[in-house]
Design a protein that fits this description.
With 120 residues, this protein is of the alpha/beta class. Helices cover 47% and strands 22% of the residues. The chain has five helices and five strands. The chain has a five-stranded parallel sheet with strand order 2-1-3-4-5, sandwiched between helices. Strand 4, helix 4 and strand 5 form a beta-alpha-beta unit. The chain is globular, with a radius of gyration of 12 Å.
Length: 120
C-alpha cells in the first residue's frame, strides 16, 4: 500500500482519482489544488507518490514538479494531462516525472501506471 498525494484544481477530479486509488488498495494522504500547495504538502506528508494535473491556476503542475524534484530528486510523480498537451507531457518527463496519464482518466490505466511507477 502506497501513500499518495493527489493534486488537481478540480475537487471532482480529486474525488474520482482518490476513489480509484483506494479501490487499488492505496491510501490518499493529502490533496492540493496547485503546484505550490503540492510542494508544501509534499514537504509535510512525504508521500510515496504524487499524482498531479499539469494545467492548474496559480502554479502549474510543471512548476510544482520542478519544486518537488528540487526538494527530493527521487520523488515519484505521475502527471495528468488532457489530450493535445503532448509538448507539456514531454517537458514533464524531461523534468523528471515518472510517467503520465491522459484525461479523462481510465481506472485500469491509472492503476497500472501507479503499480509500474511503484515497482509493484
Amino acid at each position: 500500500m502506497a501513500n499518495i498525494l493527489v493534486v488537481d484544481d478540480s475537487l471532482f477530479i480529486r474525488k474520482i482519482v482518490g476513489d480509484m486509488i483506494q479501490e487499488a488498495g492505496h491510501k490518499v494522504i493529502g490533496e492540493a489544488t496547485d503546484g505550490n500547495e503540492a510542494m508544501m504538502q509534499y514537504l509535510n506528508l512525504k508521500p510515496d507518490l504524487v499524482i498531479m494535473d499539469i494545467t492548474m491556476p496559480y502554479m502549474t503542475g510543471i512548476e510544482g514538479l520542478k519544486m518537488i524534484k528540487k526538494i527530493d530528486p527521487k520523488a515519484k510523480v505521475i502527471m495528468c494531462s488532457a489530450m493535445g498537451q503532448k509538448s507539456m507531457i514531454i517537458e514533464a518527463i524531461q523534468l523528471g516525472a515518472s510517467d503520465y496519464v491522459i484525461k479523462p482518466i481510465k481506472k485500469n490505466r491509472l492503476i497500472s501506471t501507479i503499480n509500474h511507477v511503484l515497482g509493484v
